[in-house]
Design brief:
single chain; binds NADPH dihydro-nicotinamide-adenine-dinucleotide phosphate; 8-stranded mixed β-sheet; 30% helix; Rossmann fold; 14 strands; binds the ligand O=C1OC[C@@H](O)[C@H](O)[C@H]1O; 2 domains
């Protein structure tokens, strides 16, 4: 790797909201600060519904760099021959159309979470990515952070035995009594609610902890059971709980997952309980900075404990960007770490939990059913 000339991936950014700014700040961090020498990133185009917003974004985040093109439409970015890959930072319910248009223009795509509004939209995008031979990935940034890779390595080593039970929780206070009903967290037309916005994070930990565990062998859950609390403000879920049972291939384990957008604390994080120990991952679970492992003796007493902490320049979104660049360099259509099967498991789970919870999108939201 270190001997290769670094690949410079040229990015076009779709939308100028909060997460696009966070992502671009991380793209501009020198990869060497995280010991990455095989890929680099360059932002070459910004697309917005308003050219003024695109220009303002360039001034705010890219120091007014005149070489970056500002477009008053997303299509301008898709059509720009200088763009290799697009990053989609629009609300959930636009992801399908933005990704489709980008793929049809033969751009590689990194699309924010949740990747689509439902599993049918995602399946349609995966077919299109295959047909057009472009890389496609949901921006589940947590999966690429060094902490998550290390949790996987320890679990894979077998030292903790099989997983049995896990809990992953993410909550924050979205101030729903005071934001407009048209805000993306509240508006069902924008896929509002806790499940779609926060649910990808408990899911990534269930996938890392149970689905990916060697004794499960990537078998899907045998059951999904969920319940929702709906806010009277717009009817979207303010809190949701769901349970996944993994017992199709020898391992017998359950994930209990919870999200809320009305609690101002994101404790308790993630706990994965194995037959011979436990891994506790700190909150916030989308970008934890430490985890600890307890090792049990034959009587279930702790005989060893260790804690690992992580620090790096930037906020943690650059690791997913590095993964995109490496996959593009290798001609891959999907990532080994967050492949299409995982986004599909996430979206199929959300479809089922919404069905059980009685959350029906308004007509026209789902572009593929
Ligand atoms: N990975 C992470 O850590 C995070 C991921 N996210 C994900 O990113 C996506 C965007 O979230 P966030 O940045 O907070 O949202 P914002 O509301 O801050 O920004 C969304 C942007 O999308 C564009 N847009 C296009 N259509 C619409 C529409 N109908 N209504 C509003 N905006 C629209 C706008 O950009 P323009 O005017 O330039 O076209 C807008 O600025 C969500 O899917 C969310 O789940 C969000 C936060 C953190
Ligand atoms: O991805 C996210 O992570 C952090 C939350 O604040 C945000 O609402 C969500 O979109």
């Amino acid at each position: 790797m270190a001997n290769l000339k670094p690949l410079e991936l040229k990015w076009g950014i779709i939308a100028t909201g909060r997460i696009s700014g966070d992502f671009v700040k991380d793209l501009l961090v020198d990869p060497k600060t995280r010991d990455v020498h095989d890929v680099t990133h360059k932002v070459v185009a910004i697309g917005s519904r308003s050219v003024d917003s695109a220009q303002k974004f360039i001034e705010t985040y890219i120091g007014g760099d005149k070489s970056v093109k500002a477009y008053g439409s997303y299509q301008g970015v898709y059509d720009d021959p200088n763009v290799d890959a697009i990053y989609i930072g629009t609300p959930h319910t636009s992801h399908y159309e933005n990704a489709r248009d980008g793929i049809l223009a033969k751009k590689h795509v990194l699309c924010e979470k949740p990747v689509t509004s439902n599993a049918a939209e995602l399946r349609s995008l995966l077919d299109l990515a295959k047909e057009n031979k472009v890389f496609f990935m949901e921006a589940l940034w947590t999966r690429f952070q060094p902490l998550t890779r290390e949790v996987r390595r320890i679990a894979d080593s077998g030292v903790l035995g099989e997983p049995v039970l896990m809990h992953a929780d993410l909550a924050f206070d979205a101030n729903i009594d005071n934001i407009p009903k048209t805000h993306r967290m509240l508006d069902p037309n924008l896929g509002g609610g806790a499940l779609l916005d926060l649910g990808p994070y408990p899911m990534i930990w269930a996938i890392v902890g149970l689905y990916e565990h060697p004794s499960n062998g990537f078998a899907g859950p045998s059951s999904v059971s969920g319940a929702m609390v709906k806010t009277p403000i717009t009817g979207v879920d303010s809190a949701t709980s769901w349970t996944l049972t993994f017992d199709k291939s020898g391992m017998q384990a359950q994930a209990n997952l919870t999200v809320s957008m009305v609690i101002p604390s994101n404790q308790p994080g993630v706990t994965i309980r194995y037959r011979k120990g436990v891994i506790k991952v700190a909150s916030p679970i989308f970008c934890p900075k430490w985890f600890e492992v307890q090792y049990f003796d034959d009587n279930g007493n702790v005989w060893k404990e260790e804690k690992r902490t992580y620090e790096y320049v930037g906020s943690g979104w650059h690791f997913e960007a590095d993964e995109v660049a490496r996959c593009v360099r290798e001609g891959k259509l999907q990532s080994d770490l967050w492949g299409w099967d995982k986004s599909l498991l996430e979206m199929e789970t959300f479809d089922e939990v919404r069905k059980q919870g009685g959350y029906v999108y308004p007509p026209g939201v789902e572009k593929v059913v």
